[in-house]
Amino acid sequence: MPSASEMMKEAGYPDSFVISNGPEDGIEFPITTGPVSIGRADECDVQVRLDRTVQDLHARATRKSKGYRIRSLTAASALVDGKRAGVLRSRVLRTGGKLQVGHTELTLRCSQDGYASQGWGSVLEYDLVWVLRAGISKVFTLLGVALGVSLVGLRFVLRRWWIPLLAIAAACYFAIEPFRNLVNEMFEALREAF
Fold first, then answer.
1. What are the tens digits of pLDDT across the range 54-86?
2. What per-residue confidence (pLDDT) applies to 25?
3. 42 in Cβ contact with 122 (< 8 Å)
4. Distance of CA 47 to the CA centre of its chain
5. Whole-angstrom Cα distance, residue 191 to residue 182?
6. Which residues contact 70 (CB under 8 A, 6 or more apart)?
7. Is the pLDDT of residue 1 over 50?
8. Most confident segment among 89-93, 131-135, 153-157, 163-167
9. Contacting residues for 30 by C-beta, under 8 A, at least 6 apart
10. Percentage of the chain with pLDDT > 70?
11. What is the pLDDT of residues 2-24, one digit of tens each?
12. To 10 degrees, the CA torsion angle through 108, 111, 113, 117?
């Protein structure tokens, strides 16, 4: 005779994450759409509330053919069948597999017609795309900082317009001999006038 969970899989119930240890043991989180957020925050699809080592938004699960791609969203680790899933390096969790966030272990149950069986997942979730996203994000952050510094410098120059003008005049005085002679003649004429 099939178990209750096997009958649920066959009866068209959705895929789910089930907490399989600790004080929240047995709590089931159905998966009907994606991506699935995992953490302690109220807005998470899978809420692990009693484990203080779980971050507010700890991990993300996205559909992949017959399973889910797991990606950690913080420096805190997420272990997929004992292997670390990071921000840039994801791991694939298949039905019956274990996901550990903090000290809490979750078991994935996929049904034959559940969410994971409905597609191949998104190209945007591949590790290479996440690396490019992170790199582009860092480049734009650096460009923003450089632009901010440039604007501060430009504002300084515009408020004190005489400083760069004086610097240019000093450079011309020491670099261009006819300019130096002209300035010296002007100062001689002013000295004689007063």
1. 999 999 999 887 889 999 988 888 999 999 998
2. 92
3. no
4. 20
5. 14
6. 59, 60, 61, 78, 80, 85, 90, 91, 92, 93, 99
7. no
8. 89-93
9. 13, 14, 15, 16
10. 89
11. 454 454 445 567 899 999 998 99
12. 40
CB 14 within 8 A of CB 30: yes
60 closest CA partner among 81, 29, 91, 32 = 91
Rounded-to-integer distance, Cα 11 and Cα 13, Å: 6
| Stated pTM of the model | 0.62
CA 91 to chain centre: 17
A 10 A CB-CB count for 174 gives 10
- Provide the pLDDT for residue 7: 43
8 A C-beta contact, residue 39 and residue 12: no
Pairing, β 36-39 against β 46-47: parallel
Residues 41, 58 contacting (CB under 8 angstroms):
no
Helix and strand element counts for the chain (H, E): 4, 11
Q: Considering only CA atoms, which of 85, 54, 57, 55 is closest in space to residue 70?
A: 85
Looking at per-residue pLDDT, the higher value among 56 and 147 belongs to 56
**Which amino acid appears at position 183 of this protein?**
V
Alpha-carbon span 97 to 64, nearest angstrom: 14
Q: Do residues 108 and 95 touch, judged by C-beta distance below 8 A?
A: yes
Q: Which pLDDT belongs to residue 42?
A: 95
- Amino acid of residue 6: E
Question: At 55, which amino acid appears?
Answer: Q
